[in-house]
Structure formats: structure tokens, C-alpha cells
Request: fold
Amino acid sequence: MRIVGLDVGERRIGVAVADERARVALPVAVIERGELPAALDAIARLVQEQGAEAVVIGLPISLNGSLGPQAQAVEAFGQELSARLALPIEYWDERLSTVEAQRRLASAGHRGPKAKARRDALAAAIILQGYLDRQAQANPSPPFEL
Reply:
């Protein structure tokens, strides 16, 4: 099952895609947010190109567990996207995913303007990987047999 993961920010949207077995999330793109219709069109094209069957959107829940203004904006974005796509959309707690992405990039020596774009796509992959890992725990695969 192909799944697309999104890290929706105010300026950019990081995009990640799960492999065909829905085990590994890979960062694939960054979409400039700009005007909402253009961003939604770009995501719809990417979802179609990837043959995705679902979309996971990172929800920026506050550290105290509440949904602040940014989380509400992401939910509104998700509703607009849902109206455009005929796919299930799920939300995943993205707390500290951007911080983790930044940490990983810095430890790999990536800094500067290009690192910001990489950070957003990597944050989307971190979000999607968390979702995939939870799905794998809930629905374990049978053991590999020779």
C-alpha cells in the first residue's frame, strides 16, 4: 500500500512516500506553500504519480497535548485536501519531528538554505515512519520463511 506523508508548514510542505510494502518512509519533495489551490494541485499530482492509497498529515500537537492555532490550520488544510482527493487522510502526532530532522541533518553536515528544504522532506519522512511503525505493530507481518 503506497502512502504519502506530509509535513505542512506555513511556507513549505515536506513530502515523503512509503515503499510498496508500507515499511519504510522516504523523503521525496518539498512543495512551496504559496497559494492554497496551487499547493493542493501539486500534492494531488504527486499523490497520483505515486499511486498513493492514503495520506498521512503531521499534526503539530502542543507539548501539553492541546491543539493550538497551527494544528487547527493543518486540520483545515487537511479538510481542503480531503475534498480534492478521494483517499483516506489520517493525522499523526508530529511533535518534535522538525527538531529531529534538523538534528539529523546537522549531524550529517547539512546546513544553510538547502538544508531547510531537506529538513521539511525529512520531517515528513519521520512523521510517516512513525505512522508506519505503529501500523506494523498493530498488524504484524507473518515471519519470513525460506
About this structure: The chain is about 45% helix and 20% strand. The two ends are 24 Å apart (CA to CA).
